[in-house]
Write a structure and sequence with these properties.
Length: about 325
Amino acid sequence: MSPNPSPLLQKAFEQALNQATSRLLELLRVDLDLKRDEDRFRLAVSAANWAVARLVRREVRRRGDMEWALWRIPVPRLPQRLEVTPSLSRGRVLWIPGWGDSPMSWLGVIAAAFVGSGYEEVVALDFPGFHGSLAHRRCITDMDRLLEVVRDQIQELHPEIVAGHSLGGWLASWGVLHADSRTPAPSKLMLISPSGVTGSPAERELWRTEMESWTRASEDEYVSRVFGNRPPLVAGLVKKFAPFMVREDTQEFLRSVRDDHFVDDRLHEMPSSVHLLWGSEDGVVPERFATHWVARLPQARLECWPGVAHMPHLEAPVRLARWVRAALST
């Protein structure tokens, strides 16, 4: 285990956060209550993601009162003899982070995994909520609408590969299974600790109970569920996730999830090859759910990593990038 950050380092981090958010309020005039630690954090995260997004093409999409963003990340080419999957027509990858995450935490893995891969671009979805360039916005509170957004982006973008983490894996699987029959099926799904498959009604109720328990979890319990090997500063940031789980919009989203949103019964229809990755220490989507995926997709390739929990892109980013590159060629 990595040691916890020292009190001095933690204090310096908090001071820097306070100073940054105060300055950003002056510059951006965002209407948030900066007396609340949660709102100060959301503003800082949103601004940091927005700044990074300036380096890529970012498109904001709207449907009624719902808003989301696409980060269109171009993939640099290498000489054709050095590329993993050289082709005349370069494909596209759709990347779907987990709930409360954003493309920013995945940029290192995406860059290492796809440079010289032969693909044209990675399009990463960025939803409003806890973490992302729209962190200052209210969460999407309706699972139906969220699923429809992902399905529609698959139908619009025609990705060759769809990758998803946690809730993003659920959205990816549902979107591929429910896409219009005229939409070309992705050749591969890369799913990292995906939710959306529980195996039985009893397991589904257990899943709901576990999700509800997050609203009562302490900050330290969040960190222990999310990380097997705790990166000190990142673990400190994850503690900020605790207030997110008790927000009214978060709770509204959880209440909107119905039994028919799960993909258990249709998983056997999956037209794409599936690569699954799980951390054995995952306390968010426990490894036992991997057995239900494999039971319904016997041809799926599954890897389970000891010592890794729910955030391999932060716990083992180099290894994760290698896993993605290996999946590209199999």
